[in-house]
Records
---
Amino acid sequence: MPVYEKVVDLPSPPTLSSTITYCATSSMISGLISAREYFDLKILDENSDNFKHMIWKSVDIESVSTFGDEVAEVVDAFEKELPSNRAVVRAWNYLGGIRVEKVVGGEECLVYYIIRSDLKGSLSSWLVNQGMVGAITSIFSSISAALEN
């Protein structure tokens, strides 16, 4: 569960919505697992009545200028607003995404979700796998709540 989250809109083509998202978690197990932070570029396409999809990928603050001067300026201002006492590990999300499709003739939908994260730091696979169960449950609870609205 994030303890700090901030989203900033980026200049985007009319058919897409682009944001830079910063999310930080708290430490766990009495500090045995350090807090993590994610800094992701997200692109949302909501043009179709039958499906919506979003893709995301972590970005290095230092190399974000490759997305253009406007984006670099937004990110620079964004970083200055972050808490200054961050003692966290920068985690990384590889290219991932979600697609939600309406099922024809019903109130149901299909959800496709792909994510690959590297939590960084020195964590055992056993410990990461134990934590992922709760994280995945939380993610799909949030998706379900959003779809109901």
---
Amino acid sequence: MFRIASAVFSLIDFLSSQPIHRIATFPSEEVKAGALFYTGSTTEAFIATAVSIFVNDNKNSSTEQWTTPINTLIRDDFVLTDEYWTNHITLEDVMSHRTGMPRHDSMWIIDDGSTVRRRTRSLRHLPLTNAPPTTSQYCNLMFMVVSHVIETATVLMIPEKKRAFAIMGNTAETSNLVASVLGYYLVDQLLGAPEQERYDWNASNQDAVLVSQKPFNRTAIPQSFYPHLPSPHLLASLPLSSYANSYHHLAYGAVTLNCTCDKSSTALIRD
């Protein structure tokens, strides 16, 4: 069995759920029922739990299992550049990050109002970089695909199920670092973790901020991404300024590159 993001969550009955504001305050303001918190990749555990429920509820079915190809569940929406893998990548492959699909985070990280269905349909325009399921390759986008599977399958197959999860997101006025501290604080409070045994997230985040504030090393960064570049480097066919323009990709959408110059270098920057 391959590793799948997981965690233990309580199932919430719509008729007896308790408001979240009863668990903690931070720092002195009560956490109200409508509060949203940034939880990042922990949402994968929610999705994995939802898939586990979905598979368990259909344990006597041969068409809704961990080994079920995604394409059979959302046939028109799940299409890859490779026809064979379109028809063979399974729920288990996706949940264990073995689809051959790279991150492509720049495609989805900017919120343009796209639905999970639209994100899923964009996969047909994105290349695979490994043969599934040979390599573990982290891909947030594929978990959006599973979200679409769950939304589609549960609406069509088990609408009478009264289950839900505590949904967490990010607040408009709180940075990711501060929100993560808050999230872990609430968990520690809920579990009753002793103060002296709690991890110091503030110190960890401060270290991360200090690293992010260091000036970029224009020489080291290209070498880290492309360690086998020829020396001397091959020159571009045209000056960099010639590539400054607006482009459009069927998955990435509009991409605008601007040319910036200083005394030591010229670079193309994406808006």
